[in-house]
Structure formats: C-alpha cells, structure tokens
Amino acid sequence: MAAFRRSTRAVLAGAGIVALLAPASPAVAGPTDTSDLPAYSTQLDRPQPSDLTFATECSDEPRDLPINEFTDHRELGIELDRIERNSDGRVEVEQVGMSNRGREIWSARVGTGPKAVLITSEIHGNEKTGTDAILDLLDWLSTSDSAKAKRWLDELTIVAIPKMNPDGAELDRRGNDMTWAEATARFPQLRGSEPAWNYYTGTLQGDDYSERPGFDTNRDYHPDLNYVPRAEDFPGDSASTGWYLTPESRTVRDVYRGLTAEFGTVDTYVDLHHQGACYVMPDDPDEFVTLSISGKFVDDPATMPGYEQYAADYDLDYSKRLNVAVYNALQGAANNRPLFGNVTLYPQDTNLPGTGLGAFALNGSGTVLFEVRGQTQTLGQQYRAVLTRSVYIGLDGMLSALASGRVDTLDPADYDAIPPRGPSIGSDAIAEAAVSSPR
Ligand SMILES: [Zn+2]
Prior knowledge:
Blueprint: H1 3-6, H2 15-21, H3 39-44, H4 50-54, H5 73-86, E1 91-98, E2 104-110, E3 115-121, H6 129-143, H7 147-155, E4 156-161, H8 166-171, H9 180-186, E5 199-200, E6 203-204, E7 207-208, E8 214-215, H10 247-263, E9 268-275, E10 280-281, E11 284-288, E12 291-294, H11 316-334, E13 343-345, H12 356-362, E14 366-373, H13 376-379, H14 384-404, H15 412-416, H16 428-433
Bound molecules: zinc ion.
Zinc ion (ZN) binds next to loops.
C-alpha cells in the first residue's frame, strides 16, 4: 500500500526538456537536511519535465479528473496502521471520532515534547495533498534515527488528524455529507430556524448537493470551545462564529480541547488546504502561485465587540513567525526546483472566526494556513507529487524552527514582506496558449 505514494509520475519527455529545466547555476543546498530523506524526494526536489506544463496550463472550470493516486479513506487506515506498527511505539494512532456517515476519523500522535502542534487536512474533501504530506511526515518521523528527528520528538508533541472530513473526501467535494434535518435531530432547539448559511443544497465547484446536501465544515467552528448551538445564532454569516453542528468539527474541537487541558495552550495549529488553480505571482503573470500561506484569519479581537475576552491570548506576531519559517524553507528549496519559490501571502483582509484557524487563533495558538494550487475539480491528481512535496517542505521547515526554538528569532516583518497573491487569470486566456490543455 505504501509504494503507490512514493512513485513519481514524471515521465521524461526528452533530454532537451530536461536541459531546459536545469538550474542555471550550481544547485545550492536548501535548509532541509537531505542526508536523511527518502530517495524519492531527492528526485522531487529537482526540476521535472512536468514543470513546463505547470507553468502554462490553467483552468478553473470543474471537470471529472482522476484522483486515485491520492490516499483514500480505506488506504489511510491501512497506512496509519502500518506506520504505527513500524514505529516501535513512537506513533500512536487513535480513532478520535466518526464522520456523519460513520467513517472513522483518526489522529496520529508522535513526540513527547512540551510544544503541542495540531495539524489537520482535507477539511475540504477536494483538497487532498495535505493528507499525503502528513503521511510522508509521519513515515519519516516514525523511524528516523537522525538528530533532527530526535530533536522534534524531544521538543514537540505533534498530533495530526489527516482527512478530517472523510465523507466529503470520499465524495471528492468540499462539503461534508449531512442534512439540515440531521442537524436539527441532534439539536432540537434549532427546529424552525433557518438553515445555517454554510449549508450547501445547490451546485458548487461542479458538485450537485441537491440530493446529498452538506456543510462547509470549515465555517462550523467557534472560539468558545464549549459553545452549544442556539436558535438565535442562525442562519449566521461568514463574519460570525460557527456552531459545531458537524461531527467532524466537533471531533477536531475535542482533540484541541484535550490538548489545551494537557499542555495549557496548543502552541501551533496548521490547516492544509488548496485554492484556485489560476492565481499568478503579483510581479509575473506567467508564473502560477504554487502555494499561498497565511497566519491571519480574524480581525484583532481587541477591536471586535464581543471578542474582547480573546485579546490577551491572541498572538498574530507568533503566527507570522511560523509562516516566515514555512516561507524560508520553500525559498531554500527553490534553489533546486524554482516552482517551490512561487509562494505568496493569502489575502489578509479575511475575518473568519468560524474557521478552525480563526477559532483556534483566538484561543492563543499560532496558526498557519497552507493553500496549495488547484482543487481536484481543476487539477485532479496532476502535480500531486510536487504539490504534496511543497506542503512537506513547508511543514518540515516550520517544525524544525519550532523544535530548535529558532522560530522565536524570526522577524514578523518578514511576513509582511511576502509577496501578496496576484490575480486569478481564469481559464480562457491561458487555455488558448496551452498546447496540451487537459480539458
Ligand atoms: Zn479549503
């Protein structure tokens, strides 16, 4: 089961293309210690022929594309079990909850250090690289004898919840699989209320929710970890808090609450996402954004009526430092494979206290958002390996900075200097130019 994730799908198209892609100057080692990396990654960290199409193809039009190379729910269970068994006690896998349709939600815990780090993926079921990156990370950390791994294990307690929305993941769509009637059956006080604003019943990203409605689970969080849904809070809106209506968000909330009880504060929370396929660099419309990152999801609670109680714990500068560590790691990797360097800042004018990142930032966690290029309805599994690798490199850099304490020496001003995300150039303009559009 493990082998399929390790295969790189790049097909050599000819020596000429390879030569085109070779870096102009001798490769400079990035901050990642390559001596301890699995063999496949050293190939991934060099330019590949597919990097040429990465730079020319783009469409935001939903299509049915293959996704079988990503790890599905059944395979995730097998992989986590294998990693736990091979880890000699380092990795502890536990079922922490169950999705609305009865699929297991697992956590994997590794390390015994004082800093608690929570990492979640696939809250949107059509955003799949995070799950594979988490598995790669656990795979390495579960068996490595390196000094780096030892430092992580001593300084950090990493808890990962890969594929937190398994029902949405199996349907390969953003929302979970849950009706408003199921929500009101669990919370009878909501009968007669208008359904939540983040309840999908129409068509979104090419998916028809009319027969199988669902919620955007990532608007279902509340900074009050003990919040119980109240009729007067519905239907709500994106600038307001969510409700913990879905079993998926309640599961993550429960894990977060448990870590808070154990560690005082969850030091860092990372949520792994994908964004549109057609964003370009702000200074170069020919270069697509590989990854956008962010540490800012809510307005300053000190200035938000009703949020004052969170002001003392909220620490935007810390989130900025964590993001700088992500950014620096990817810039280092770009010395060898330039597309790793196309990293931009996600829009900073968001105020989303109903997201996991927003709610947990208000509880004092440093927060990091990854937004990899293209969801499955636009890219399918195309570029799966390199995009998963970009998430891995960012996570690796951040966790290394956390474990060494170097994160505290980073300058929040460097975050503000990360280039902003450029515009989305949409599908039409580039489709004409792309010779081999997969449309
Ligand atoms: Zn997302």
